């Protein structure tokens, strides 16, 4: 229930509760809150039991967590044999490598092996060179003249 609350956050909540309610009233407040949570859980469990009894015996394995679309799809796909074959196919296909090969072919460059990362080649994303990365210039490239008015 509180798996995402850290120790520092828990200490902060305790100190805040002591400051707000005081050390005299704090045990009474904790009892009231725990009693309220217990009643809500009992109400929830009885509502679930009523719904299951109204649905009939064919829905006795029904889980309310399955109403979440992500859980429902995950459960249906896990039971499906075609999904396992799709995972095997997906593991053999490297989309990033294929896209890099297509981009290299469009720009007329030779495709580089994916295992070696060369810093001299410009980084390509969506068919455009990365202008933020320093690109190597050929030795015979002429430097533009210095413009005193621009500075």
Give the proportion of residues in helices. 55-70%
| N-to-C order of helices and strands | HHHHEE
SSE-based structural type: mainly alpha
Strand content: under 5%
According to DSSP, the number of beta strands is: 2
Write out key terms for the chains shown.
two-stranded antiparallel ribbon, about 150 residues
What does this 3D model show about the protein?
The protein contains four helices and two strands; from the N terminus they run ααααββ. The protein has 151 residues and is an all-alpha fold. Among the domains are: 1-62; 67-109, no CATH class. Strands 1-2 form a two-stranded antiparallel sheet. The longest helix has 49 residues, at 7-55. It starts with 6 loop residues before the first helix and ends in a 22-residue tail after the last strand.
Question: In short, what is this structure?
Answer:
This protein is 56% helix and 3% strand.
SSE topology:
Layout: H1 7-55, H2 69-79, H3 81-92, H4 95-107, E1 124-125, E2 128-129
Antiparallel strand pairs: 1-2
């Amino acid at each position: 229930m509180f798996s995402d609350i850290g120790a520092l956050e828990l200490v902060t909540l305790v100190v805040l509760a002591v400051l707000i309610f005081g050390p005299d009233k704090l045990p009474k407040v904790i009892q009231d809150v725990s009693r309220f949570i217990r009643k809500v859980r009992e109400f929830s469990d009885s509502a679930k039991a009523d719904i299951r009894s109204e649905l009939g015996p064919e829905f006795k394995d029904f889980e309310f967590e399955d109403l979440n679309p992500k859980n429902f799809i995950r459960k249906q796909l896990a039971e499906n044999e075609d999904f396992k074959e799709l995972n095997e196919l997906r593991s053999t296909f490297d989309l990033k490598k294929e896209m890099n090969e297509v981009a290299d072919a469009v720009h007329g460059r030779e495709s580089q092996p994916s295992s070696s990362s060369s810093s001299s080649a410009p980084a390509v994303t969506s068919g455009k060179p990365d202008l933020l990365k320093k690109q190597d210039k050929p030795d015979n490239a002429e430097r533009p003249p210095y413009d005193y008015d621009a500075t």
